[in-house]
Amino acid sequence: MAWLLSFVDIYLGLAFLGAVGLILLLVARVRYTPGPHCFRVWQMRSGAIMRANLLRFDGAKERDPAVERWMKGHPGELGKIARRWFAAMRECGDEVREVLHDGCANACLGDVPFGYVGVFAAHVNVGFFYGAALADPAGLLQGSGKRMRHVKLKPGVPIDAAALGALIEAAYSDVKARVENG
User: Fold this and answer.
1) How many CB atoms lie within 10 A of CB 104?
2) Distance CA 115, CA 41 (A)
3) Once rounded to an integer, what is the mean pLDDT over residues 52-80?
4) In terms of pTM, does the model score above 0.85?
């Protein structure tokens, strides 16, 4: 019986020391700091920074034939609205690629999406994958998710085109900074 108590004492002691040692190791080696754009950032004493991974879409191309077919499949006023704003996304830079994903035309910086256009029965959404981080002085953005926001466009309803164009540019710049800074 005495050997069982000493075994339990040793086991509990090692478990306690192991937990304390692990905590000390983590505190001494890793420092948590909030990073830009609400990402979690861990900075090692060596200076290396690890960030949460960015969303990436495989198959993004300079001009995706699937996106072209999708655009042609949406005639009328809704299609016209979708083409106008997706063209604005395409014009953001030479690195812009596109891919059809989840039934929407997506604009990417390389393979990292920054915006999308989706056509629905009565409206078009112009969306931003990291829209929650964008400044929106005109109050166009809708949504309450952790990251994504969208602007809902309806035929015949006026929109602040300059403000939406600025949001598209800001979304592209934001993703570009995210990609370049790890």
Assistant:
1) 19
2) 24
3) 93
4) no
